[in-house]
């Protein structure tokens, strides 16, 4: 798992690359469906050719094992 740890708030961060906006948006939708299913929601930023995903647990004030699991599940959604 090659996620970056960032501060303020402490969180897991990763940028996923795509050929165009349509593919980026489709991936963001898959991440959104995963988040709803698991009742744990990331910060998603969708841009042309890229999706930024950030996982952390607000109530814990940082990264939990649930966030690490969600990052692994997010990686599994990425076909790249």
From TrEMBL:
Q: What class of enzyme is it?
A: lyase
Q: State the species of origin.
A: Thermus aquaticus (strain ATCC BAA-2747 / Y51MC23)
| One Pfam family from the record | Pterin_4a
By its UniProt entry, which Gene3D superfamilies does this protein fall under? Transcriptional coactivator/pterin dehydratase
What Gene Ontology molecular-function terms does this entry list?
4-alpha-hydroxytetrahydrobiopterin dehydratase activity
Similarity comment: family membership: Belongs to the pterin-4-alpha-carbinolamine dehydratase family.
- Domain of life from the UniProt record: Bacteria
Q: Which reaction does it catalyse?
A: (4aS,6R)-4a-hydroxy-L-erythro-5,6,7,8-tetrahydrobiopterin = (6R)-L-erythro-6,7-dihydrobiopterin + H2O
List the protein's name: 4a-hydroxytetrahydrobiopterin dehydratase
For the keyword Oxidoreductase, the answer is: no
Q: Which UniProt keywords apply?
A: Lyase
User: Does Lyase show up as a keyword for this record?
Assistant: yes
Q: What is its EC number?
A: 4.2.1.96
Q: Which PANTHER family match?
A: PTERIN-4-ALPHA-CARBINOLAMINE DEHYDRATASE
């Amino acid at each position: 798992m090659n996620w970056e740890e960032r501060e303020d708030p402490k969180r897991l961060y990763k940028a996923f690359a795509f050929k165009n906006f349509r593919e980026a948006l489709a991936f963001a939708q898959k991440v959104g469906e995963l988040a709803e299913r698991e009742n744990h929601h990331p910060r998603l930023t969708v841009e042309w050719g890229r999706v930024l995903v950030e996982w952390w647990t607000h109530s814990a004030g940082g990264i939990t094992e649930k966030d690490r699991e969600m990052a692994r599940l997010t990686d599994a959604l990425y076909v790249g």
